[in-house]
Write a structure and sequence with these properties.
single chain, 94 residues, mainly alpha, Hypothetical protein yqbg, 4 helices, Phage_gp6-like_head-tail, Phage_HK97_gp6-like, Phage gp6-like head-tail connector protein
Length: 94
């Protein structure tokens, strides 16, 4: 079960329809997997607000930017701020 709910992501995106629920659920799963990979550990339960915000930002970004590249913009695979939000939770291995 995802840590971030579909209604939370729809609120983040200001969506009021159910047409894209399947892709939104996929974006949540992918963003949570990305966050866990970046911090190097399973996501904690309860989810800290900073990780929740990073997942919401990333899922919303991937929903709105569905292509690998866009003309006329700077390329970015992860929106500005996501790594900053996750950095404090990173499991450093020496």
């Amino acid at each position: 079960m995802p840590f971030v709910s579909l209604p939370e992501l729809k609120a983040q995106l200001n969506l009021d329809h159910d047409l894209d629920d399947a892709i939104l659920s996929h974006q949540i799963d992918a963003a949570e997997a990305y966050a866990a990979s970046f911090i190097g550990a399973a996501l904690p339960d309860p989810l800290p607000a900073t990780i929740r915000q990073a997942v919401l930002m990333l899922a919303a970004f991937w929903y709105e930017t569905r292509e690998a590249a866009q003309s006329g913009t700077s390329p970015a695979s992860v929106p500005f701020g996501v790594h900053d939000l996750l950095q404090a939770h990173r499991a450093w291995v020496v």
